Amino acid sequence: MAETTGAVLPKGFRSAELGWPELHRIPRPPYRLPLVGDVIGANVRSPLQDSMRFGRRLGPIFRRKGFGKEIVFVWGAELAAELADETRFAKHVGLGVANLRPVAGDGLFTAYNHEPNWQLAHDVLAPGFSREAMEGYHPMMLAVAERLMDRWDGERAAGRAVDVPGDMTKLTLETIARTGFGHDFGSFERSRPHPFVTAMVGTLTYAQRLNVLPAPLAPVLLREATRRNEAHMAYLNQTVDAVVAARRHSSGEGDLLDRMLETAHPDTGERLTPENIRRQVITFLIAGHETTSGALSFALHYLAQHPDVAARARAEVDRVWGDTPLPAYDQVAKLRYVRRVLDESLRLWPTAPAFAREAREDTVLGGVHPMRTGAWTLVLTALLHRNPEVWGADAEEFDPDRFDPGAVRSRAAHTFKPFGTGARACIGRQFALHEATLVLGLLLRRYELRPEPDYRLRVAERLTLMPEGLRLHLDDRAPAPDPVSLRPVARAGD
Ligand code: HEM
């Protein structure tokens, strides 16, 4: 066990008692068992949803301990806003994110703040998400969406329901692979997920299981899983090496991979090393599709459950896009209501449901909880987004009008954080929002979405969130509503 003294805390997992001298002030579940900790009512497959349940009972800051690892969670709006202060706090690479280091190394997502490759890669790659770059990706995004709709047309004609998370994963993987790396995984031609997806899901699930198991026992309990994980990592590396090698023999079109291979830092002239490029490609292929596919899947679930919201969104698409078969780049951001549907889905189920923050210096959180330099906490976005003090007594209900401009202005800052915060917030935010709004617009325009009658939302966790077993029936579109019925609908219930 690491030292408890000294100004800077050790690397690796740091249990809360190391960094929070007044930990006893923070509520915890009542029944703590010796050795194992707060495991009553906990399920290794749903640590996030368990934490949400505990959090509701214990309040805006609480702690949980499992097998000697104690974690402080925060979901109070004021505390979360304090943690967003970049002068006092920074991203903490710990827990699930640190568990991905063996595969993603010092790639953007998993880099420690002090690692020079973070700033270098950030500066080299940020222009890859500029408006100009996004405009270049737009036609490729459209082309992939058309592949999805070809497939869905076939399923509709055959009267079969579609596998939403499976197909959204195909769509978002193809989109990031083509726009970022000029690569075609051929996902839509396959009946099973591409082995890259299987390997990726395997690695994410493994990283999550390491979070919840006792460190000394993990090698024994996970022996078989560890072996599989090594095979998965080897597959991810091989795939990425092949993508990079192919590009070295041909030229790209100024995409992310070109930037990685050819662009020097504008001030220092430094370039990314081949090993770091490998880490970045894996990072972008994973971070660039897994969360967006979940966000699209949740949004489609809510649209199917709320036909009034779907009708209003569809009417907006008709009005803004008219008969244009292929909407232009600028026409996507004009789908304001569709975007609210997406925001509201990301509020209820932020597909990256938490992020970790660490103290830059000794400090006191909320004027009550002292933290030593390097002490950290997990901001539970999924519960911050359902905090009744911010979102009202109906916080659990789906209602896109929460994101109309007046409502947004009236809310405190830092209460909606699906893309994280500060310097280490999501670099792909605009990419994800453009892609998802475009795809929702296209799907709404083409199909009526009908849920399976008995479906109840179940959420699968593998660091990210995904609706489990979600299948939807596609019907031909009903005739367009007359303009009178296009007025805002009453609040959508659950
Ligand atoms: C709805 C979709 C998405 C969500 C909800 C999401 C969420 C997040 C969050 C919460 C973080 C911060 C994590 C932390 O603080 O530890 C993050 C970081 C990141 N995301 Fe996303 N993301 C999405 C889409 C994307 C896309 C499309 C890309 C790439 C094309 C991407 C690439 C990244 C990268 C590289 C980072 C690390 C940034 C850094 O530390 O410099 N993400 N994302």
From TrEMBL:
InterPro entries: Cyt_P450, Cyt_P450_CS, Cyt_P450_E_grp-I, Cyt_P450_sf, Cytochrome_P450_Monoox. Belongs to the cytochrome P450 family. In the N-terminal section; belongs to the cytochrome P450 family. Transmembrane segments: none annotated. Its cofactor is heme; FMN; FAD. PANTHER family: BIFUNCTIONAL ALBAFLAVENONE MONOOXYGENASE_TERPENE SYNTHASE, CYTOCHROME P450 FAMILY 4. Heme binds at C426. This is Cytochrome P450. It comes from Streptomyces olivochromogenes. It comes from the Bacteria. GO terms for molecular function: heme binding; iron ion binding; monooxygenase activity; oxidoreductase activity, acting on paired donors, with incorporation or reduction of molecular oxygen. Keywords: FAD, Flavoprotein, FMN, Heme, Iron, Metal-binding, Monooxygenase, NADP, Oxidoreductase, Transport. Signal peptide: none annotated.
